[in-house]
Amino acid sequence: MNEKKEVGEKAVEYVKDGMVVGLGTGSTVFYTIMELGQLVQQGLSIKGVPTSEQTKQLAIELGIPLVSFNEIEQIDVAIDGADELDSELNLIKGGGGALLREKIIAAAAKTFIVVADSSKNVDTLGTFPLPIEVVPFGYEMTAKHIRKLGGSPKLRMKDGTPYRTDNGNYIIDSSFQEITQSRELEKSLNLIPGVVDNGLFVDMADIVITIKDKKLSTIVRS
Ligand code: 5RP
């Protein structure tokens, strides 16, 4: 069973003609976007808002029309993956480095749908190092502040140089072992000068499509 494909394709059921759709980033939502591309070829009329340059490129290749923020009031549905997901539907995101645009788009969506294979389900968030987007200036000092909050910050590297997000920023990946106060940590991190945003998505997911006991499972926030 290709779990990513199963959950990714299932999410398409929530997309209706005429909708503005937030298009997430990663290998799970890839299947959603591929499916949407096929439906667009068959006549579905939607407009996409991509969460990364990578997704923008994919959408263009598939012929999914894109729309900019100044042309819309809100997004009808945003669909995206997750790196960790707890039973309260709180998430760690940003493994692919797109967390800032992903959060902006999720926050603008009437309905935010998360597609996650079974490996993403955890009892407590924090095993996956939390991605934190920081401005390059003074990032060493920003990292020290993150350490004071209990993190073990590590600058994300790519090909021997610091990884750059689509926004030109750095990512600090920081393990926190167990994140029991996700809302508090999300806020405390964002108060550090130099932090742009972090990958904790608290109380944002409306619907989660995942795999439990080898079966598709759709969880709706109550
Ligand atoms: C990118 C993300 C992705 O949604 C997350 O990393 C999950 O990716 P995948 O579906 O490839 O496992 O947050 O910034």
Topology:
Elements: H1 3-10, E1 20-23, H2 29-41, E2 47-50, H3 53-62, E3 75-80, E4 84-85, E5 91-92, H4 99-107, E6 109-116, E7 130-134, H5 139-148, E8 152-155, E9 157-158, E10 161-162, E11 170-175, H6 182-190, E12 195-198, E13 200-201, E14 207-212, E15 215-220
Parallel strand pairs: 1-2, 1-3, 3-6, 6-14
Antiparallel strand pairs: 4-5, 5-13, 7-11, 7-12, 8-11, 9-10, 14-15
Helix pairs in contact: 1-2, 2-3
Bound molecules: ribulose-5-phosphate.
Ribulose-5-phosphate is lined by residues 24-28, 80-83, 93-99, 102.
Give your account of this protein's structure.
- The chain has 222 residues and is an alpha/beta fold.
- The chain folds into 2 domains: 135 residues, 3-Layer(aba) Sandwich (Rossmann fold); 69 residues, Alpha-Beta Plaits, CATH 3.30.70.
- Helices cover 27% and strands 28% of the residues.
- It contains 6 helices and 15 strands.
- The strands form 4 sheets. Strands 2-1-3-6-14-15 form a 6-stranded mixed β-sheet, sandwiched between helices. Strands 8-11-7-12 form a 4-stranded antiparallel β-sheet, with helices on one face. The protein has a 3-stranded antiparallel β-sheet with strand order 4-5-13, with helices on one face.
- Helix 1 packs across helix 2 and helix 2 runs parallel beside helix 3.
- Bound molecules: ribulose-5-phosphate.
- Ribulose-5-phosphate binds next to helix 4.
